[in-house]
Amino acid sequence: MLKNCLQKIIDQNLDGVLFASSANFQYLSGCTSYFWQRSCMNNIAGQFTSKINPEALLYCTKEGKITIICIPTLQHFFKEHHVLISYMDQMEDTLSQVIDGKRIGIGFDCKEWIETTLKEVDPTIETIYAENIFEDLRYIKSPEEIEKMRELAEFTDAAVLHLVKNLKEGMTQFDAEQALMQYGLDHGIQDFSFPPTAGFKTRGTFTTEENYIFPRTSKLVPGTAIAFDVGYMNQGYCSDWGRTVYFGKAPEYIVKGYAALQAGQVAMVNQIIPYKTNINELYDMILDEVTKLGYREHLKYKEEGMLGHQIGIDCHEFPMLNRQTDFILKPGMIFCSEPKMMFEGECYMRVEDMILVTETGAEFLTKFDRTLFEVHND
Fold this sequence. Notes:
Blueprint lengths: L1 H10 L4 E5 L2 H7 L16 H4 L6 E6 L4 E5 L11 E4 L5 H5 L7 E4 L4 H11 L4 E4 L5 H4 L4 H23 L7 H14 L4 E2 L4 E6 L21 E7 L1 E3 L2 E2 L2 E7 L4 H20 L10 H11 L15 E3 L6 E5 L12 E4 L2 E4 L3 E4 L2 E5 L4 E3 L9 E2 L3
Parallel strand pairs: 1-5, 3-4, 5-6, 12-20
Antiparallel strand pairs: 1-2, 2-3, 7-10, 8-9, 9-12, 10-11, 13-14, 13-15, 15-18, 16-17, 18-19
Helix pairs in contact: 9-10
């Protein structure tokens, strides 16, 4: 992997790359035990979420020499690398002992600090935006990465199933979301890909203008659709998962609508041919099946064909899934397909799966029962 990364650095005529703790830091170091705080949109809107000062820095030269500068409490994470210990207010002094090039690639995290500090180290240094430098390497997952993400997908299935079996009338949306977090923590999960959502929508209690408003104080009563959006993070990788369940007896056309949404998802995955299927075809595969089953009007984002994203170290990775993305699927890619339906003033419905592209097609990593919809817990 490092050899391929070095070639990217050379191809962009860089002397090296310098990253604060981030996805690129993890990817270059291979260290998945070091917990670096992230947001779910880290690599999409990272300029709005990046930290001000670094606690750890990784510098990699074009020759492949990696040096990690970190505060004392983090040094045990990086035993396989050359580590220099520094306090946060001495980072610039330590960094000046490491930087030996004039064209340095940098990322989002701590961007302003890094730019300013490099100029203090050497005013002639040119910083080059390189947040996405390894993007086309990262979207192909190694067997080890795939196994970690497969385990995490299975865990997410189990976590939500546990909650579904324990839904009780009168619990609030906040209660349900807290239960999802606590289940993860109780089972040793490191963090969450994003704050879990268990969106309560009770039939006949909201207007069409309130379709996407989910008060966390809402209480669970019969006639409530629950739209889940759940992701856990462990061993440096993320999951992202979605389903809808209905508490109590659902109207028949809602039950059939959910079946149509699931059928569209399955039809899409069954049609994927590696090295041939384009990302910009995926939404319409779902749309065609949903249309056949009579639910076209309810499917969201028909104009944009917006469907989802890749996933890995970051929750939302490129290439994104929409009609504007011209990209052929390749084995080793893992993406999240999240088609949604809206039944105005009645039910918001979603399905989201983690899907692995294989040498012969594609497979679901998330395997939550597709027929489980109505929940009648005593």
